[in-house]
Amino acid sequence: MKRTLLLMRHAKADVGHGEEDFDRPLNDRGHLQAANVGRLLAERGYAPDHVICSGSRRTRQTLKGVLHELGLAGTPEVDYSDEVYSAGPDQLLETINRLDTSAETVLVVGHNPTIAQLAAGFLGDDTLTRYAPATVAVVELEVDWLYAAPGTGTGEILN
Question: What distance in Å separates the CA atoms of residue 93 and residue 147, rounded to the nearest whole number?
Answer without folding.
Answer: 10
